[in-house]
Structure formats: structure tokens, C-alpha cells
């Protein structure tokens, strides 16, 4: 009888916690979307931002956010995959491996503001890249790399050991077994983790305040010369992202429609991050159905 009562109490507490988390998330999303959706329009998404006049848009900030995300993942994914493969398949349980894992854990727990200060010191000042897309992408690489390493390692370790032994029993090398058997089997988990981490990077702001800058030129999308300061592809220009733009508007904006711009930008940011999460789940389920042969 006591066990049944304890079980019911535990179940009730767990359900209440789940309801509180769901209600909190729904309230936050509802509040942001309720105030921000009315501000979103084609003009808002395709116009340059304005420092003084009302009616500015977020075209440049939205492009900068996706550009920095692409550059960050370009650095992070290969390094993270290699690191995860090493820790899962090659690293032996010794002091060196323990030290590497400790470094990964420390990097994963660093506040983003600390990563931003590190990027300011190394990439902006020491290398002289100033506030730029490259500095911001490299700072976010430091921020996101341990996530990809851990996601890759966990996905690889979830692959049954029998698959590895079967490949080795056929006489193929360990690397060939990893490349052709283990990684494809773990690919759904790896890809889902990469997409989820992309959503995390897209919404980052603290690290970019000190590395990518608080301003952006009005981009000329007819000029694709990467050396031009108004070119969308120039990696050495300052690049205010959408999340930084929200902070900047709320703290130092002087346009008459500050609240409308902030609400609309917040709604766009939330929808993008939500889209990353939903897309990751859809891709994971799709690949899983293909691999398992389910309809």
C-alpha cells in the first residue's frame, strides 16, 4: 500500500513539473509571438535597418545571422566530428583521455560572455581581424565545438558493438569500419545534434557583442565581391546579428518605433530557432524510417 502511494506521489510530482515547464514555454512563446507577429512583413524582412527614422527592417541582420551560422558550422562540424570519433573509437582510458574530456566539459560549461571576451582578446585584437564575421564565427566555434564533440561521441557509442566486431571480422581496417559502418549507423543522431546546435548558435548574442560588432553596413546584394565592405560575402566586415540587434535596439535605439522593431525581431528569432528544432526532429525521424525500413 505504501509503495502504491509513493508511486502516485512521484508520478504526480513528475506530471506537475512537466506541466509547469510546458506552461512556461507556451507563455513565453505566446507572449513573444503575440506582440511580434503583427510587426513581421515582407518589407520588414527585406528593408535595411534605420538608426533614426521609423520603418526600418532587419534584412542585413538576418543575413548576418545566417552567414555567421554557416561559417561557424563550417569550422565546428569537421573538428567536432573528428574529436567525437577519436574519443569514441580510438581514445584509450588513460590520463590523456581524461584530460581531453575535462577540457571538453570545461569548454561546454563556459558562459558565452567569457567566450566573447576570449574572442575579443585573440581574434579581434591579437590577430587584428577587428569586429568581423570571421572573429564572430571563430568565437562561436569555441562555444559550439564541445557540443558537437559530445553529440558525436554519444551517437557513436549508441551503435551496437557487434557492428564494429562484424566489420573487423571481415578483415577490414578499423578506420574503414568506422567510416562505412559505425558513422552511417550513428548519422541520424549526429545530424539531429548538429541541427539543434545550429539553433543554439543562431540565437547567441553575448559572444558576438565583442567579436562581430554592434553595427553592420547596408549590404549591396548586387555586389558579391568578397573584398568590398558592402558585399554580403565579406568575412572581414562588422556584422550585427539579429539577436545583437534586439539587444542594441532595446538598450540604445532612438527610432520612434523601437518597440515594434524589437518585437518583430524577437518573433523572427524565435521562429527561426523553433524551425531549427522542428527540422531536426523531422530529419531524425525521416532518416530513422529510411534506415529501419518502416513506412
UniProtKB/TrEMBL annotation:
Its main location: membrane. Residues 62-280 form the ABC transmembrane type-1 domain. Keywords: Cell membrane, Membrane, Transmembrane, Transmembrane helix, Transport. GO terms for biological process: phosphate ion transmembrane transport. One of its GO terms (molecular function) is phosphate transmembrane transporter activity. Signal peptide: none annotated. GO terms for cellular component: plasma membrane. It is a multi-pass membrane protein. SUPFAM superfamilies: MetI-like (SSF161098). The keyword Nucleotidyltransferase does not apply. NCBIfam families: 3a0107s02c. This is Phosphate transport system permease protein PstA. It comes from Terrilactibacillus tamarindi.
Amino acid at each position: 500500500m505504501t509503495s502504491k502511494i509513493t508511486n502516485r506521489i512521484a508520478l504526480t510530482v513528475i506530471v506537475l513539473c512537466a506541466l509547469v515547464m510546458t506552461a512556461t514555454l507556451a507563455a513565453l512563446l505566446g507572449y513573444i509571438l503575440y506582440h511580434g507577429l503583427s510587426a513581421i512583413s515582407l518589407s520588414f524582412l527585406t528593408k535595411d535597418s534605420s538608426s533614426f527614422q521609423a520603418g526600418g527592417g532587419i534584412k542585413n541582420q538576418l543575413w548576418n545571422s545566417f552567414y555567421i551560422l554557416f561559417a561557424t558550422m563550417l569550422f565546428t562540424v569537421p573538428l567536432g566530428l573528428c574529436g567525437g570519433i577519436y574519443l569514441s573509437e580510438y581514445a584509450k582510458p588513460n590520463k590523456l583521455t581524461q584530460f581531453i574530456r575535462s577540457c571538453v566539459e570545461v569548454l561546454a560549461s563556459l558562459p558565452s560572455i567569457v567566450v566573447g571576451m576570449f574572442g575579443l582578446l585573440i581574434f579581434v585584437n591579437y590577430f587584428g581581424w577587428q569586429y568581423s564575421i570571421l572573429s564572430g564565427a571563430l568565437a562561436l566555434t569555441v562555444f559550439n565545438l564541445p557540443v558537437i564533440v559530445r553529440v558525436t561521441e554519444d551517437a557513436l557509442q549508441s551503435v551496437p558493438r557487434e557492428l564494429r566486431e562484424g566489420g573487423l571480422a571481415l578483415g577490414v581496417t578499423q578506420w574503414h569500419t568506422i567510416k562505412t559502418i559505425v558513422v552511417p549507423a550513428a548519422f541520424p543522431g549526429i545530424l539531429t545534434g548538429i541541427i539543434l546546435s545550429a539553433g543554439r548558435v543562431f540565437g547567441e548574442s553575448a559572444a558576438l557583442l565583442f567579436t562581430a560588432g554592434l553595427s553592420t553596413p547596408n549590404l549591396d546584394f548586387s555586389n558579391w565581391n568578397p573584398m568590398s565592405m558592402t558585399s554580403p560575402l565579406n568575412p572581414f566586415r562588422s556584422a550585427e546579428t539579429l539577436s545583437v540587434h534586439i539587444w542594441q535596439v532595446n538598450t540604445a535605439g532612438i527610432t520612434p518605433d523601437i518597440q515594434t522593431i524589437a518585437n518583430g525581431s524577437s518573433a523572427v528569432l524565435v521562429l527561426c530557432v523553433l524551425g531549427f528544432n522542428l527540422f531536426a526532429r523531422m530529419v531524425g525521424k525521416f532518416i530513422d524510417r529510411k534506415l529501419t525500413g518502416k513506412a
